[in-house]
Amino acid sequence: MAYTVLARKYRSQTFDDVIGQDPIARTLKNAIKTGRVAHAYLLAGTRGVGKTTMARVLAKSLNCLAFDAPTTEPCCKCDSCVAVNLGEDIDVIEIDGATNNGVEQVRELRQNAIYRPARCRFKIYIIDEVHMLTVPAFNALLKILEEPPSHVKFIFATTEPNKVIATIQSRCQRFDFSNISATKIAGQLKFILEQEKIKYEDDLILPLAKMANGSMRDGLSLLDRLISTGAEPLTAELLEEFLGSPNSEKIYNLIGEIGDSSAAGTFAAIEDLISTGLSEVQVVDSLIDYMRDLMVVKSAGAESELLILTAEQRKRTGRLAEKFDTAALIYNITALEKLRWSIKNSDTPRALLEALLLRFTLSEHFLNVDELLSQSQAGPVKKKRPTSVKSEASSKGQGTKEDRGQKTEDRSQATSIEQQASSPVRNLPMGTGNATQKEKKSNGTSDERRGKTRSQRKNELINDPAVKTVLLGLDATITGIEENQ
Length: 485
Ligand SMILES: Nc1ncnc2c1ncn2[C@@H]1O[C@H](COP(=O)(O)OP(=O)(O)O)[C@@H](O)[C@H]1O
Ligand SMILES: [Mg+2]
Ligand SMILES: [Zn+2]
Description:
The chain is mainly alpha-helical. It has 3 domains: 6-176, Rossmann fold (3-Layer(aba) Sandwich); 182-243, Helicase, Ruva Protein, domain 3, CATH 1.10.8.60; 248-404 and 417-424, Zinc Finger, Delta Prime, domain 3. It contains 23 helices and 5 strands. The chain has helices at residues 6-9, 22-33, 51-63, 79-86, 103-113, 135-146, 166-169, 182-195, 202-211, 216-228, 236-243, 248-259, 263-274, 280-300, 311-321, 326-344, 349-361, 369-378, 387-395, 401-422, 430-449, 454-463, 465-479; strands at residues 40-44, 92-96, 123-128, 152-158, 173-176. The structure holds adenosine-5'-diphosphate, magnesium ion and zinc ion (ZN). Adenosine-5'-diphosphate binds next to helix 1, helix 3 and helix 10.
């Protein structure tokens, strides 16, 4: 028997089956119960979230032959329901707006719409991707929307509602479909795997659901691809192998190295990821995802429901989060997002990726506002050392000539970094550096006398034009994006 893709095989049949769109389902059911079904609906939302599905459920509800009037529970067995499910009913006409987008087609639709439905209560036009209609086609449509025959209903679906002209929008009742949460997609994936009697490991489900990015159809298509490998049970490793998602173990490792301020470790971890065939952009995307999780742990705790993680991943994320402070994570995520754009247009994406991650790794040794503050109050503070350099040099013994060269370089880099670190004001242009040092002598007490809180002082420092220039300059160099001042 031919294989039917899961997305078609498991299309929801009734309002209650459509996952994650409850408010819309409820409103439509109420409209049917109270006989207030609008003559035109606009269903907006990204692909694969249930727009066509909902349009068909509504069409079946209005036309089900098992009842004398519209129902909220279509039978799904009568000739009408069956034909609607296949998209082949004579009274429920599905039109692809992308290909039938001309004024001629809309005129033809108008002429046909005048005739009563063949066997059911309503003639229902479902126009998919309605934003693709040409302007003359929209105008032609407008005419019939203004005064539709009472037996006609329109259901428009679009992924780009902003491209649907206002005069059409104002004549429709609009529903915005939500992206479906990873947890809900995961539930459906499990349900389907059980129905299909396919063995799987639990660890597979959440990462797979996350990859679907809110689209149930994408989730099911990914599952189709996994199943087509013939492997059983389906595992998280299989997912990583076949769908080119970065090995989570490797990403955790990279983040760990960054958190430990290990320069050499960071480079090795990047190499480890890139050598599996991932692009730099894929690495950046994963890093953003994982750093986001760390940020959530920091602000909402490791048990937060905002984290879509397996128990093991949750523990791991919790441990990694301890290596970062929230400000650093916020900075890292925004810098990665900027980097994403610049590396897409770069001939040397690898170097840019490495530069930024090295910047993260050594962040403690660049300008650090917190430390500047504590230095200006209480003298030098304990510095984190670039651990990689020391441990590599002592633990590895001889090594090759190249190795030794590398180490020497590392060591000199480390020294200069430590020098910088011990006097962070050197990072500032001279003028401000001096000013800060002057303050340093008297500051500790004077600020307190003036009653400034630590965070006020920190804000002042961050907003100091010279400090800003240094930070932004550094970031612009790496991400290639100038801040609009
Ligand atoms: N909300 C949902 N609940 C359950 N399954 C869904 C949902 N959205 C999409 N699907 C699955 O994805 C397939 C395609 O959905 P569809 O309604 O055609 O999406 P679109 O929003 O692009 O029109 C469906 O056949 C179904 O298997
Ligand atoms: Mg659709
Ligand atoms: Zn029916």
